[in-house]
Write a structure and sequence with these properties.
By secondary structure, the protein is an alpha+beta fold. It has 2 domains: 55 residues, no CATH class; 94 residues, GMP Synthetase, Chain A, domain 3, CATH 3.30.300.20. It is 24% helix and 28% strand. The strands form 3 sheets. Strands 1-2-3 form a 3-stranded antiparallel β-sheet, with no helix packed on it. A 3-stranded mixed β-sheet has the order 5-6-8. A two-stranded antiparallel sheet has the order 4-7. Strand 2 and strand 3 form a beta hairpin. It is elongated. The N and C termini lie far apart (40 Å).
Length: 156
């Protein structure tokens, strides 16, 4: 299916290093020229050695799951003639101990809010079915052992 490439780069900023007082700030470089400032999570490494303004790997993991689910959902909706006007998700990843007793992102909850248009917008049950199928075909969800729950937010 293809390869997906990212370059990750870090340079010591003159700090000692072996005393563990070094910056965890680094960059992710993607094809097309996108550069993302990254750092360790401030939950794991205190400032000033982490940078809360940057994306941390755990946030990126949650974003990748959310983005993949959304793209799978939109693809299925378009295939079925469902017109989606807006899709928003406030995804949350939770750290915990995995089955091996190691720290990791053990659960991710996706909370998609979908707004549809057209002559016959889908019912809540039809949207739930689309979310279920989108989860089943999501490349990232199929690549991880983390529990991923999809809890669609109902229309107001």
């Amino acid at each position: 299916m293809g390869e997906h490439v990212c370059s990750v780069g870090w340079r010591r900023d003159g700090a000692a290093f072996v005393d563990r007082r070094y910056s965890r700030r680094h960059e992710w470089r993607f094809d097309g020229g996108v550069v993302v400032p990254a750092s360790a999570s401030p939950h794991a490494v205190p400032a000033p050695y982490s940078d809360a303004r940057c994306v941390d790997p755990e946030e990126a993991f949650v974003a990748a799951l959310s983005s993949c689910h959304m793209l799978s959902f939109l693809w299925l909706a378009a295939q079925r003639g469902v017109v989606v006007d807006a899709y928003d998700d406030d995804a949350v990843g939770t750290m915990g101990k995995n089955a091996a007793g190691r720290e990791g992102v053990t659960r991710v909850v996706l909370r998609p809010r979908v707004r549809c248009a057209g002559p016959r917008p889908p019912t809540d049950d039809e949207l739930d079915a689309l979310h279920h199928e989108a989860h089943a075909i999501c490349y990232i969800a199929n690549s991880v052992t983390t529990q991923v729950d999809v809890e669609p937010v109902r229309r107001a």
